[in-house]
Amino acid sequence: MARRDTTVFAEFASARSAALLRAAYLMVGDEALAQDLLQEALTKTYVAWPRLRDPNAAEAYTRKAITTTAITWFRRKHWNNERATDRLPETGSPAQDDLVAQREWLWDALQKLPPRQRAAIVLRFYDDLTEAQTAEAMGCAVGTVKSQVASGIKKLREHLGDDVELLPLNLVVVTP
Length: 176
Known about the structure:
Blueprint: H1 6-28, H2 31-48, H3 58-76, H4 94-112, H5 115-126, H6 131-138, H7 142-160
C-alpha cells in the first residue's frame, strides 16, 4: 500500500475547501449540513489518498464524493429541510430587492429539484464542469447528465412560469 502524504493532502484540503464547500452548499441548501458533507467527502478522499495515482485528481475525487454522498443523504432523508437562521433579511434598494427576489426564487426552485437534477445543474453551471466531468463526479453516463440537466432546467422554467427571462443562463444563486 502506498504511503500517505499528509502534507500534500492538507495543502489540497486547505486550497480547495472553500470552492468545494460552495458546491456542497448548493447541493444541500444548509450551511452546517454542507460543512458536514464536505468533511465526509474530505475524509473519504484522505482514506483514498494512497490509491490516487495522480494527486491532481483529488478535487475530482472529492467532488464525486460530495455528489454521491449528497444524493445518498437525500434518499435516506438525512434531514427534514428545516433550517435555523440567526441572520435577519437585509433591506436594500428597489433594484437590489429585485435581484434578491430573483436569487431567492432561484434558490427555492433549485431546492425543489430532485437530488440528481440539482447535483447535475450545480456541477454543470455553478462549478462550470464539462458534461464528461459532471458525469464522472456523479458516477453516471454523459447522457444521464444531459437528461438530468435538461429535466432540471425544464422544471425550473415551469416553476418560473411567464417570467422565463428571469432565469439566469449561468444559474447564479446566493452562497454562504
